[in-house]
Design brief:
18% strand, 158 residues, alpha/beta, globular
Length: 158
């Protein structure tokens, strides 16, 4: 089986998601690619650092801007394992990210179609959007993480 470019970069984001899970954070990973090369990466660090702003996309966008020396990411593609939330979608719009590729949909907080699609609103920028790339795999990583949390919260059987 030959992986598409989208699948290849989503696998890289999945590795970061698994790292987040091992650190006790919701397993979401993100990479930003320019000209076929990963220039930035991020994973959820909300729990680890006690900061609600440290979503995978926010971490990766900050790293990409630092790597490129500016805030415009119009020639970049952001790959993330979970549909971006409103905060992250706003950052994507403000950074002018050219393309967004996500894995699992998020019916609770998704801002790319799960709850609403901010990218369809009349903002001055609209990234290209591709959802569902390795979506089943991305969803399974999240499901396994939350199943593990639920099991850990159950009292021991007598």
């Amino acid at each position: 089986m030959t992986l598409t470019e989208r699948e290849r970069f989503m696998h890289t984001a999945l590795e970061l998601a698994r790292e987040a899970a091992l650190a006790g954070d919701v397993p979401v990973g993100c990479v930003i690619v320019r000209d076929g090369t990963v220039i930035a990466s991020g994973r959820n660090r909300k729990e680890e650092r006690g900061n609600p702003l440290l979503h995978a996309e926010m971490v990766a966008i900050a790293e990409a801007c630092a790597a490129l020396g500016g805030w415009r990411l119009s020639d970049c593609t952001l790959y993330v394992t979970l549909e971006p939330c409103p905060m992250c979608a706003g950052a994507i719009l403000n950074a002018r990210v050219g393309t967004v590729v996500y894995g699992a949909s998020d019916p609770a907080f998704g801002a790319c179609g799960g709850v609403m699609n901010l990218f369809e609103e009349a903002f001055g920028h609209r990234p290209h959007l591709y959802g569902g790339v390795l979506g089943d795999t991305c969803a399974a990583v999240l499901r396994d993480f939350f199943d593990g949390l639920r099991k850990a919260e159950q009292p021991p059987e007598l």
